[in-house]
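Saturday, quiet lab. Running sequence design on the structure tokens for the scaffold JK sent over.
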């Protein structure tokens, strides 16, 4: 998804902007560009493809001579128009005075464009952002801040933006509505970014803008933050709690592999200080609910997208099994379009790694409109969903850079398990059952380490199956969402067509596809449902499908049902679901590497999907 970095200070801006763009690469993009303000002149360079192309262009054309110390830059993920140089940001207005970078979507850009065209404006791109730039230009009468306010009043849609104006060469303006903007406060310099990871190299002191905020910055720092009525607003300076090292690969070939191997630590962080062994419950102060309020909650509504949706499905099992709470999982994208019923005493939970997913955010707002208390389960601190939800629990998984979500999934599952434990203890879960669950949670990091030790075996199996174009993943009970997640991971990073199915559903249609070129990965761990899945595996074998099993270590009879086995340590069902997911992440990773895919930035995908 698009990324923004901007700089005003006393150092050459292009260096800092290019470095910032590299930090934003993990988000996914298809073109990049930057503008620097050189002695009252706007100088822009843009290029299609990787930031490295832009860097080469900058080095070639400016030969490292640019001393300009104010600039804006952008990585674009195409929404309006193809990924071309003309459509890449920054965009400049027709008069060549204003240059803008923009994330989000201007929904009424066509109407605005027609009006501007009628006034003689000419456009060089297909983008909504160029329209916004010219709209600001239309209102410009010597005060850029005033022009931005006036223009934004005519805009419907979302924006995170940064801009410069050649008539005011010492000012940087940024604004936000529905797309994150963060201000980094440095020593004699100020940065603006859409993502903290572009800032941490330069400063840990940040301000998160709220929707409708506009910020004006000069070489001394921030001069004003105000809202659309020009009323000053005050925003706290916060300290970012992760450093650059946490956002780099740490010696692994890919971020994805690093993040898979980080899971024991990430999971530990989700429960550190949150388990009360004495009472057999979870603490989770972010929920901020009294026992009475918890008892009053009689239904759980969960919404999320993609991998987070699979975590939500496991959460549904947890809430039903441990807390006896009726639960519904919803595709966030569908939630507000089907007029959902939100009853009194419903707890809604939004799950999102990034906290910026547009569909999930829309579902949060819909649930709030209907009077629900919405709780956020997010990883990115200060993200929009984290801030807009009434209360919630952070994952504390650390930055997840690879587009394919790994540690976010397992930590989401862990947080949901703790939530179910806490609610369970207000309902029918006994103290001893609660203590048992605490112990299981606590044992998970060590068991994940055991799975990670299987990496070489998993790699061997992956190499054997790397050439197949289709794969089915089947599971039952807790292993059904894991099958869905395993299949999603394989298709998104290796481009192999993979389907996750409930094992019992196979015979209702998809079994027609099975043959010797279609392997089936069956999740046959020794938990509830194993006996039934053995029957389903037999059905697959009878159609000549090669069968790979995940099975519990020591369950040797499973060898006779499979061509290959991935062994998973013995564990309770919720923990087994996490362990099996880790094994499937490794399986997808090794296949993707063997197929020479771009593991961390798969084609067509973005890390946070901020469009509906
Ligand atoms: O940031 P979120 O958890 O809200 O993101 C939701 C999905 O876009 C995300 O999980 C996506 O499916 C990942 N690429 C999966 O690996």
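Result came back. Writing it out in full:
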């Amino acid at each position: 998804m698009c990324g923004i970095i901007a700089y005003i200070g006393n150092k050459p801006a292009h260096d800092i902007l290019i470095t910032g763009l590299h930090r934003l690469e993990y988000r996914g993009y298809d073109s990049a560009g930057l503008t620097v303000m050189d002695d009252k002149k706007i100088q822009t360079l843009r290029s299609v493809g990787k930031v490295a192309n832009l860097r080469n262009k900058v080095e070639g054309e400016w030969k490292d001579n640019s001393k300009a110390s104010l600039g804006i830059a952008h990585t674009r993920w195409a929404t309006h128009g193809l990924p071309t140089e003309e459509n890449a940001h920054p965009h400049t207005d027709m008069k060549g005075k204003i240059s803008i970078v923009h994330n989000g979507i201007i929904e009424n850009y066509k109407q605005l464009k027609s009006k501007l065209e009628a006034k003689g404006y000419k456009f060089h791109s297909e983008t909504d952002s160029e329209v916004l730039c010219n709209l600001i230009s239309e209102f410009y009468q010597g005060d850029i801040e005033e022009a931005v306010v006036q223009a934004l009043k005519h805009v419907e849609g979302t924006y995170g933006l940064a801009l410069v104006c050649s008539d005011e060469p010492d000012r940087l303006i940024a604004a936000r509505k529905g797309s994150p903007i963060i201000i980094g406060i440095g020593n004699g310099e100020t940065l603006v970014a859409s993502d903290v990871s572009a800032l941490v190299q330069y400063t840990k002191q940040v301000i998160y803008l709220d929707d409708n905020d506009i910020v004006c910055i000069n070489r001394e720092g921030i001069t004003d933050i105000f809202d659309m009525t020009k009323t000053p607003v005050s925003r706290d300076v916060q300290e970012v709690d992760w450093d650059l090292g946490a956002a780099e690969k740490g010696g692994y070939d890919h971020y994805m592999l690093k993040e898979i191997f980080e899971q024991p630590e990430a999971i530990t962080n989700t429960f550190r200080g949150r388990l009360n062994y004495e009472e057999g419950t979870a603490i989770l102060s972010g929920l901020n609910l009294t026992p009475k309020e918890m008892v009053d909650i009689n239904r759980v509504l969960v919404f999320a997208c993609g991998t987070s949706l699979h975590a939500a499905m496991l959460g549904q099992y947890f809430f039903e099994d441990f807390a006896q709470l009726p639960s519904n999982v919803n595709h966030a994208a569908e939630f507000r379009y089907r007029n959902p019923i939100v009853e009194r005493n419903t707890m809604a939970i939004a799950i999102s790694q990034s906290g910026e997913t547009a569909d999930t955010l829309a579902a949060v707002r819909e649930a709030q409109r209907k009077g629900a208390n919405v709780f956020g389960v997010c990883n990115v601190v200060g993200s929009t969903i984290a801030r807009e939800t009434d209360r919630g629990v952070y994952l504390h998984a650390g930055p997840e850079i690879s587009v394919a979500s790994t540690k976010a999934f397992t930590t989401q599952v862990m947080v949901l398990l703790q939530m179910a434990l806490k609610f369970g203890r207000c309902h029918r879960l006994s103290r001893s059952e609660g203590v048992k669950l605490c112990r299981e949670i606590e044992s998970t990091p060590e068991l994940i380490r055991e799975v990670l030790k299987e990496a070489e075996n998993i790699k061997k199996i992956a190499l054997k199956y790397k050439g197949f174009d289709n794969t089915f993943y089947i599971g039952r009970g807790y292993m059904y969402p894991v099958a869905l997640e395993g299949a999603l991971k394989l298709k998104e990073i290796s481009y192999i067509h993979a389907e996750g199915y409930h094992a019992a559903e196979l015979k209702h249609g998809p079994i027609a596809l099975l043959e010797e070129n279609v392997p089936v990965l069956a999740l046959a761990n020794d938990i509830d449902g194993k006996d039934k899945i053995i029957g389903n595996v037999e059905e697959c074998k009878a159609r000549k499908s090669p069968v790979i099993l995940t099975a519990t270590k020591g369950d040797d009879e499973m060898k006779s049902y499979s061509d290959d086995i991935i062994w998973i340590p013995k564990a309770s069902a919720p923990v087994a679901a996490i362990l099996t997911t880790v094994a499937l992440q490794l399986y997808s990773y090794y296949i993707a590497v063997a197929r020479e895919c771009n593991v961390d930035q798969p084609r067509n995908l973005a890390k946070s999907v901020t469009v509906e």
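Notes for JK: The pocket of 5-amino-5-deoxy-1-O-phosphono-D-mannitol is lined by residues 305-308, 352-354, 357, 360, 403-405, 492, 605, 608-609 (CB under 6 Å). The CA atoms of residues 102 and 129 lie 6 Å apart. Ask whether to fix the surface positions before the next round.
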